[in-house]
Amino acid sequence: MENLPTLQEMDQISRIFKLLSDKTRLKILLALEQGERNVTSIAESVHMEQSAVSHQLKMLKDNRMVRSRKEGKTVFYQLDDDHVFDILEQTLEHIRH
Asked: 29, 39, 60, 95: which could join 66 in a potential S-S bond, CB 3.0 to 4.6 Å?
C-alpha cells in the first residue's frame, strides 16, 4: 500500500478519465493516432465543425493529452506522448478480453 497515489495524483487520474469518457474526444485522439493533423483534417475525420473540434482540442491540450505546433496560420496537433495511446489501447484490450 506504500505506492498509493497522492490526492493530487488521484485528481489528475480522475480528470484524464473524465476527458476520455467523451466520445468526441476519443474520436479526436484516435484520429491523431496516425500522426500529426490540422484542425480541418481532424474535423473532417470525426464529422464535426472545426469550432467544436477546436474546443475539444483545447481541453485535451490543457490536460497534456495533445500538443500543438504552428506553421504559418495552420495549427497542427498530435498526441502529447505515446502514453496517451497506451491508455486507449489497454482500455480497448480490457473490454475485448
From this structure: 60
Q: What separation in angstroms does the CA of 50 have from each of 56, 67, 76, 89, 97?
A: 10, 17, 13, 26, 35
Cα 73 from chain centroid (whole Å):
22
Structural domain of residue 15, as residue ranges? Answer: 10-96
Q: What are phi and psi of 85, to 5 degrees?
A: -70, -30
Of 95, 63, 96, residue with least CA distance to 79: 63
Q: Domains in the chain: how many in total?
A: 1
Record the pTM.
Answer: 0.86
Is residue 3 domain-resident?
A: no
